[in-house]
Amino acid sequence: MQTKSRNFYLFPYTFWIALFVLAPLGLVLFYSFTDLNGEFTLGNYGAFFTSTYLQLTLSSFWYAFLIAIFSLLVAYPTALLLTKTKHKQLWLLLIIVPSWINLLLKVYAFLGIFGTYGPVNALLEVAGIGPQQLLFTDFSFVLVSVYIFIPFMILPIFNALDKLNPSIVDASRDLGASSWTTFRHVIFPLTIDGVRAGCQLVFIPSLSLFMITRLIAGNQVTTLGTAIEQHFLVTQNWGMGATIAVFLIIAMVIIMFLTGKRGMTNGKKA
Amino acid sequence: MKQLIRTFLIVLAVAFIFIFIVARLNASQGLSGGNTLTIYNWGDYSDPDLIDQFEEETGIRVIYETFDSNEAMLTKIQQGGTTYDLAVPSEYAISKMKEEELLIPLDHELLPNRQYLNPRFLNLSFDPDNAYSIPYFWGTVGIVYNKEMVGDKTITSWNDLWDEEFRNDILLVDGAREIMGMGLNSLYYSLNSTNESELQQAKEKLHTLSPNIKAIVGDEVKMLIGNGEAPIGVVWSGMAAEIMYENEDLDYVVPEEGSNLWFDNMVIPKTADNIEGAHQFINFMLDPENSAQNAEYVGYSTPNEKALELLPEDISGDERFYPSPELTEKLEVYDNLGKEVLAYYNDLFLEFKIELR
What is residue A68's predicted lDDT score, i.e. its pLDDT? Predict the structure, then answer.
């Protein structure tokens, strides 16, 4: 009786997963085996392993890596600082508020800010450096992406730091560890789960960014996401788009697995 | 396993129920569909005042949705999720839509204002006797440049863009046919080439332009060139007209090697609900005064002869936007090259974009 009612409550969830997760995934897999005329082919997979797409995959990973690293470099100290402030919930809210604004609007704002006649270049000019080409460079691409992803990095790290028992830190200091040693050997290892979660939240979506590549990087940066979008909307080569998507999904699963809780660090801790 | 099969069957069953409900909903909307008209058009491609005026005159509520490439539009109409009553595709997309039977034939009786159209733009190869389409605007692909920023260099041809002076100066629109066409034209090939080696050469040639390319962008190119962010852009004529109106330093040229002559046409896709309303709208837009107002707002060239007479001389006499018949000779209309060749164009363009840096 009990299991029956449990099954019943499970139903909406299973149903949702099946209809909106499994079925689309199945479709993606199915399409990846079709050519332009909808006939079965393995050609898409062959095409993926040509230099063009491998290069594309490599550069996507490289940019996603840069974005994750820089987000982490900014987010960790910020989160650390946040836990030390008096009104931390308020500060946290202030950091999260910008993420309520539509992504596209924020990206458009950067078009103006980074423009040749924008405020950043005006500042550089006053500083005597002279105007620089900011838009349509990989620098601006990484910077804008980092800006957009920072809240996703801060939140999990903040939660991990907030849950950290302060007496452990005090104990470390009492036993003579410098603040750097305390951070390196106590605080950071104990919040590594937050860092992992943050990196997942940033790295994986970064692989498939596509709006920013066009607006900020002017297609000078192409990611897997751009290629998928192009194949579905422009080329109409759904098969190839689906094939790239399959590889993207595989990459995501591998990343989840590598950075997941079942990773080796967890074993060490136990 | 049994559970898995059962879940799967239930999912299928529910999916069918959804399809049924949607069909019923659509049917019931059809009864009241006379009140709305869903227009699927390019961004910023009709005067909003005219839409208001149309709503006032007919009592039909207009829903205006936009797309930014023919391909994106085609995909959406093929899927058929939305009941678009009117779309404005370019000529090669129309031949494709005709092939796939995505269009509803027009009732010419309901379009008396058709008489004002210039016969030069009627009965063209992509749609004989205009059975499915009515021309909306036409124009060219060319180069817009900032005279001040370019200096004493003159730009008259595609090949001028390869000049080393223009390092990191050029913005391109994100269109496979447009940019591949530019590559082909710069080699004096036809922009409808289906020859694989010619296309490869065109891609190689485009690749050598990479150092001069600042970015490949969408509609933002208007803002970027208008603000002087870059001195040179490869754009459609109407885009150029619009920003030249705002920035006097800009000039537009149709390259001498030849270029593309395109038509955007009003069609009624298979997804339409309000076919009568769509006809009303087409006829409304063909009215010379409305057509002139629209042409002045949008900046593209009108195929409406009567409207052209109503336009001020400085617009209608401008050879850059209403090119002489001699120049028009060198312009080519995009042919529908078929799925395979088109996919090849797109693949080459994508490769070009991936290898840009």
Answer: 95
Judge: A14–B343 Cβ closer than 8 Å, yes or no: no
Q: Which of A163-172, A188-197, B30-39 has the lowest mean pLDDT?
A: B30-39
Say whether B350 and A37 touch across the interface (CB within 8 A): no
d(CA A176, CA A133): 50
User: Under an 8 A CB cutoff, do A117 and B15 touch?
Assistant: no
Burial (CB count within 10 angstroms: exposed 0-12, middle 13-18, buried 19+), residue B47: middle
d(CA B275, CA B132): 13
Inside any domain, residue A154: yes
CB proximity A111 to B under 8 Å: yes
Q: Which of B14, B227, B356 sits opposite A115 (nearest CB)?
A: B227
Give the nearest partner residue to A115 out of B72, B229, B342, using CB atoms.
Answer: B229
Query: Tell me: the pLDDT tens digits for B26-40?
Result: 665 544 445 889 999
Nearest-CB residue to B356 (from A14, A220, A234): A220
- Domain containing A85 equals 51-269
Residues A196-224 pLDDT 10s = 999 999 999 999 888 898 889 888 888 99
For chain B, the C-alpha Rg in angstroms (whole number) is 22
CATH of the domain at A116: 1.10.3720.10
User: How many Cβ pairs within 8 Å bridge chains A and B?
Assistant: 95
Q: How far apart are CA A149 and CA A70, in angstroms?
A: 10
Which among B72, B216, B220 has CB closest to A111?
B220
Q: Are residues B202 and B330 in the same domain?
A: yes
- If asked whether residues B333 and B189 sit together in one domain, one would say yes
pLDDT at residue B175, as a whole number:
86
Question: Residue A107 domain-assigned?
Answer: yes
- Residue B234 shares a structural domain with residue B339: yes
- Check whether residue B8 and residue B104 sit in a common domain: yes
* Residues of chain B contacting residue A233, judged by C-beta atoms under 8 Å apart: 69, 71-72, 75
User: What one-letter code names the amino acid at B275?
Assistant: I
The structural domain count of chain A equals 1
Query: Residue A7 in 3-state DSSP?
Result: helix
Q: B51-61 burial, b if ≥16 CB within 10 A, otherwise e?
A: beebeeeeebe
Contacts of B215 in chain A (CB under 8 A): 135-136, 217-220
What pLDDT is recorded for position A270? 35
Q: Report yes or no: A139 at the B interface, CB cutoff 8 Å.
A: no
**Using the 8-state DSSP alphabet, how is residue B34 labeled?**
G
- Residue B71 to residue A222, Cβ atoms within 8 A: no
Residue A153 contacts residue A82 (beta carbons within 8 Å): no
Interface test with A, best of B73, B350, B351, B355 (most A CBs within 10 A): B350
Structure ipTM: 0.80
Which structural domain range is residue B192 located in?
Answer: 139-261+323-354
Q: Which residues of A touch B174 (CB under 8 A)?
A: 214, 219
> What are the binding residues of B for spermidine?
92
pLDDT at B29: 53
> Same domain, yes or no, for B335 and B283?
no
* Total residues belonging to chain B: 357
* AA letter at A240: M
Q: How far apart are CA B163 and CA B229, in angstroms?
A: 19
Cβ B220–A215 below 8 Å, yes or no?
A: yes
Which segments in chain B show pLDDT lower than 70?
1, 26-34
